[in-house]
Amino acid sequence: MKRIIVTRYGPPEVLRLEEAETPAPGEGEVLVRVARAGINFADLLARMGLYPGVPKPPFVPGHEVAGTVAALGPAVAGLAVGDRVVAGRSFGGYASHTVAPRATVTRLPDSVSFDAAAALPVNYLTAWLAVMHPGALQPGETLLIHGAAGGVGVAATQLAKICGAARIFGTASPGKHDWLREQGVEPVPRDDFRAAIREATDGRGVDLVLDPVGGDHLLQGYRCLASGGRIVTYGISAMAPGRRRSRLAQLREWWRTPRFNPLWMMGANRAVIGVHLGRYRDAERLQQAQTELFGWLESGEIAPRIDSVFPGAEAAKAHQHIHDRQNIGKVLLDFA
């Protein structure tokens, strides 16, 4: 098998292609022949040593794959060799073969491509938690999505429309604003979004803010909330402003991360919600989310936007593409 390993924490160039022995699935496990592996910003943070729980190098990054069942371990039911599947992993997705627990493997409908399937697990489940539950966006409400042209941002926009959002605001690089408008998103400046939201809503604010940035950015998002509003924090990309790990940036953003006082929140009638998909323990809720997402995918109500597919051997280029903020939607690796 072929796999991409992180040789040491650092810039994209630390990613290296290597040959390895194909693993055998253990009890309750499935060996997947990977066709597509999804790339998430969490992978970039892991490569730099900034992601919570990241293994020490060398390790294989990647949290989501789509492909076919190559082998089944003992005590695995409901699947057969050759089935088309999508699977979630803690790490290990950037490879031609990967072993996943049966509970994380789902058979794909024939109508769902490997590209769409590999774009679904992390981005759309994160967006579902942020928008649907516990984000609880209601019909007629408004929201602000930071990083609206990224994988989670695109997913959140589509789910907000399903919820009946009245207005969707979004931040992104200026070159992506026209694309946002085509999606029904009202662009606001990344550097002065609070003033733009205040003006656009006549001072009321928005009902829901989705923030993957963290630091002071999170506090400014909180201050954009209307009475009864919620802000969902699901990342801290501010700690990784460049290609390399910066202790100074880490310390600065950690220092600037707000500590929310419950008395403030009570007085303002605002809520702060944290979402970490990898540590979400309500399996029944995630199953509900997955069922709804696949239903909407088949009906056409959601459609992952694939920005680009890089050969597996070019994982470093794919990471740099995301660092450079070139992507609109999902970036994938091809291991077919």
Automatic annotation (TrEMBL):
Residues 10-333 form the Enoyl reductase (ER) domain. The keyword Transcription does not apply. Keywords: Oxidoreductase. GO terms for molecular function: adenyl nucleotide binding; anion binding; oxidoreductase activity, acting on the CH-OH group of donors, NAD or NADP as acceptor; zinc ion binding. InterPro entries: ADH-like_N, ADH_Zn_CS, ER, GroES-like_sf, NAD(P)-bd_dom_sf, Quin_OxRdtase/zeta-crystal_CS, SV-ATPase_mito-regulator. GO terms for biological process: small molecule metabolic process. This is Enoyl reductase (ER) domain-containing protein. The keyword Cell membrane does not apply. PANTHER family: SYNAPTIC VESICLE MEMBRANE PROTEIN VAT-1 HOMOLOG, SYNAPTIC VESICLE MEMBRANE PROTEIN VAT-1 HOMOLOG-LIKE.
